[in-house]
């Protein structure tokens, strides 16, 4: 599968056309950023690690009956995916308090959240991805009421599958974000699932094993990503 025209280059991934109008190539790069691009770095092996980590997770979700845009690995840093019309919202699930929830609401970090907190955010780098609700989404035409319910349902299904997967590896899935698109009239999981877009803590020590290591200058960022992958069965 040959890469064609570059369609989009984000903070850590590039998206290319292919000869098939229904498929795209996603390239995972070593670029790393935080705080709306104020902190940036190149981390060796990151593109490869996130690409293979994502492929593993997407396969697990597919086997659990959750349809995704992922089709196959093409190389260490590239994957083939379905071309979807992306919905401009992010779905976030929080199983424990961390990050913005702690800063904005004064909740103690690590507090278990039962039931888990669900949040929508509008995808806009210029606006800092503000939090939104169902009413905003419907009023501004970002998704239909039916699509909203489908996104919520799938997001909670993902939580059930991955919380168990990570816990079996001695890890706590603290929180994560998902993005969705429409393919042939169906809402499918898109984008990626990697330690870049979730929080994972060691279940015994509460050591942070995710992108917070980069945000908080804890070091050994990619080594932590690889350790997470090793514990759940990813082959790098």
Mean pLDDT, nearest integer? 97
CATH architecture of the largest domain: 2-Layer Sandwich
Percentage of helical residues?
25-40%
Order of helices and strands: EEEEEHEEEHEEHHEEEHH
* Uncertain ranges: none
- Number of discrete domains: 2
Radius of gyration: 17 Å
Stated plainly, the CATH topology of the largest domain is called D-amino Acid Aminotransferase, Chain A, domain 1
CATH class of the largest domain: Alpha Beta
Explain this structure:
With 236 residues, the chain is an alpha+beta fold. It folds into two domains: 6-82, Phosphorylase Kinase, domain 1 (2-Layer Sandwich), CATH 3.30.200.20; 86-220, ATP-grasp fold, B domain (D-amino Acid Aminotransferase, Chain A, domain 1, 2-Layer Sandwich). Helix content is 30%, strand content 33%. It has six helices and 13 strands. Strands 8, 9, 10, 11, 12 and 13 form a six-stranded antiparallel β-sheet that branches. A hairpin with a 2-residue loop joins β11 and β12. α1 packs parallel to α6 (221-232). The mean pLDDT is 97. Pathway: Purine metabolism; IMP biosynthesis via de novo pathway; 5-amino-1-(5-phospho-D-ribosyl)imidazole-4-carboxamide from 5-amino-1-(5-phospho-D-ribosyl)imidazole-4-carboxylate: step 1/2. One of its GO terms (molecular function) is ATP binding. This is Phosphoribosylaminoimidazole-succinocarboxamide synthase. It catalyses: 5-amino-1-(5-phospho-D-ribosyl)imidazole-4-carboxylate + L-aspartate + ATP = (2S)-2-[5-amino-1-(5-phospho-beta-D-ribosyl)imidazole-4-carboxamido]succinate + ADP + phosphate + 2 H(+). Belongs to the SAICAR synthetase family.
